[in-house]
Amino acid sequence: MLTNQASFKRDGVQDFVTVRATAIIMTAFTFYMLWFFLSTPTVTYEIWHDLFSSLAMKVFTFAALLSIMMHIRIGFWQVLTDYVKAPGIRAVVQFFINLVAFSYVAVGLFVLWGL
Amino acid sequence: MQLSFSVYRYNPDVDNAPRMQDYTLEVEEGQDMMVLDALIALKEKDPTLSFRRSCREGVCGSDGMNMNGKNGLACITPLSTFGNKKIIVRPLPGMPVVRDLVVDLTQFYTQYEKIKPFLINDNNQPPAREFLQSPEEREKLDGLYECILCACCSSSCPSFWWNPDKFIGPAGLLHAYRFLADTRDTATEERLSDLDDAFSVFRCHGIMNCVSVCPKGLNPTKAIGHIKSLLLQRAV
Ligand code: SF4
Ligand code: SF4
Ligand code: FES
User: Fold this and answer.
1) Chain A / chain B CB contacts < 8 angstroms
2) Hey, is B190 helix, strand or coil?
C-alpha cells in the first residue's frame, strides 16, 4: 500500500479500499473524542494530558492523522483530476495539498511524543 | 389551453452562441401528449428546429433530452408531468451539440465499445444450435439487457461529464456487467482486467443520478457495485 501511496499512477481497487479503511479510522477517532468531551464535565490540562499519555491513545491518534493524510491524497487526486484539467497546475496544487497533509502528520508526531 | 416552451437552439454554422427560444402551443383543454408530440407540432411551425426521434415509443433511445432539468425520453414523457409550468427543453448535458437538441454521442459509444459488448466464448465446440441457459441463469441478465443506450444516464453523471474519455459511464458499465453475469461468456478475467484501473469503474462515486433518470427503470449503480466487488475479490 505504501508504494501505491507514494506513486503517481493510482490503483483503483487499492484507492477504493484505502479511502474506506481510513474513513472508518477517522470516524472511530471522531466518536471517541466526542464521547470524551461529553463524558468529561470540565476538561483540565491534567485530564487532557492523561488522555494522550497512554501508548494506545498515541497510536490511535497517529493512525487517525495518517488516515487523514492518505484520505486527502486520494480524495484530492480524484477531485483535482475532475476539475483541474491543466496537468501543470494540477501537479502544483496537488504538491501543496500533499505538503499540508504531511505537515499535519509531522506536527502531530512531535506533539504526541512531546519531542 | 396554451402551453409555453423554451427550447435550446444552436446551429454552429450560423450562430455565435446557443440561445433559448420561446414557443407556445395551443392544446385542447384536458388533453395530454408527449413532449415529443409537442416538439413535432412546434417543428411544423418552425422547420429549423432539430431533434432526433425514431420509434416514438421508448424503445429506440433516439430522443434522450433534458426536460425541466431532468434527462428522459421525450416520446414517453407526458406534458402533464410538468403541470402548467413552462417546459424547458435542452440537449443531453455534457455532450457536444451538433445542432439544437441533437448531440454528438461519439464519446458515449467509444466507452460502450471498450467494454466489448458481445458474447465471448472460447469453447472450441459451440453448440450446433442454441446456447441454452437454465431459467435461473437467464434471470441474471434481467435488469441489464433492457438498456436501449439512450445515454440519459451517462449524460446525467458528473463523473462522466468530467472524464468522458476515461470513465466508462453508467450505460457502458451496465453492459459490462451484463456480459460478466452471462454464464455463456468465458472472458470474465479479460473483461475485469480491462476495467481494473483508477478511472474506468472507480470514478463512480455512487451519486445515483443514473438510476433516477433511466427511462427503462434500470439500476446502473447496482451493476457497478457488482463490478466493484468482482474487482475487489480478484485483488485479494
Ligand atoms: S441504462 Fe437506462 S438511461 Fe442508461 S442508456 Fe440504458 S436505458 Fe438509457
Ligand atoms: S452512481 Fe455512478 S455512474 Fe451513476 S450517476 Fe452516480 S457516479 Fe455516475
Ligand atoms: S423516439 Fe425512440 S425512444 Fe423516443
Assistant:
1) 33
2) helix
Of A11, A12, A37, A30, the residue nearest A68 (C-alpha): A30
Q: Residue with C-alpha cell 432539468?
A: B69
Q: How far apart are CA B163 and CA B74, in angstroms?
A: 27
Q: Is B136 helix (H, G, I), strand (E, B) or coil?
A: helix
What ipTM, to 2 d.p.? Answer: 0.83
Tell me the per-residue pLDDT of A43-96, one tens digit each, with 9 for 90 and over: 999 999 999 999 999 999 999 999 999 999 999 999 999 999 999 999 999 999
Best probe of the B interface among A82, A83, A84, A90, by most B CBs < 10 A, is A82
Q: How confident is the model at residue B84 (pLDDT cuts 50, 70, 90)?
A: confident
Indicate whether B145 pLDDT > 80.
yes
Grid cell listed for B2:
396554451
Q: Which three cell numbers stand for residue B32?
A: 395530454
The whole-angstrom separation of Cα B204 and Cα A15 is 13
CB contact under 8 A, A83 and B162: yes
What are the tens digits of pLDDT across the range B155-188? 999 999 999 999 999 999 999 999 999 999 999 9
Chain B contacts in chain A segment 37-66 (CB below 8 A): none
Question: SS3 string of chain A?
Answer: CHHHHHCCCCCHHHHHHHHHHHHHHHHHHHHHHHHHHHHCCCCCHHHHHHHCCCHHHHHHHHHHHHHHHHHHHHHHHHHHHHHCCCHHHHHHHHHHHHHHHHHHHHHHHHHHCCC
